[in-house]
Specification:
By secondary structure, the chain is mainly alpha-helical. Helix content is about 85%, strand content about 0%. The chain has two domains: about 1-55; about 60-85. The protein has helices at about 5-25, 30-55, 60-85. The longest helix is centred in the C-terminal third of the chain and has 25 residues, at about 60-85. InterPro entries: Cyt_c_oxidase_su4_prok. It is a multi-pass membrane protein.
């Protein structure tokens, strides 16, 4: 199990990444750049949260691969739903 120092460091990184989303839309970035940066920051934050706060980093690799496969399937369902709406 990770110690308090690790959790504090991850919390600070998440705080900085959350502030990064604000920076993209406050300063003069193109809309596509701001959206791409925001999505990238959101993915990084999701990986950090899943790895450390949900303790996936301590699980055996097959469990991590199963979670990755489930996430990929959710992505496919989202793309299929978006395609069927149009």
């Amino acid at each position: 199990m990770a110690d308090v120092r690790t959790y504090t460091l991850i919390y600070l990184v998440l705080l900085v990444l959350g502030t990064g989303k604000f920076v993209f839309f406050t300063f003069d970035f193109a809309y596509a750049t701001a959206m791409g940066g925001t999505v990238l920051l959101a993915v990084i934050k999701s990986v950090l949260i899943a790895a450390y706060y949900q303790h996936l980093i301590e699980e055996p690799r097959p469990v991590t691969y199963m979670m990755g496969l489930a996430l990929f399937m959710v992505f496919l369902l989202t793309v299929a739903a978006g395609y069927s709406i149009q």
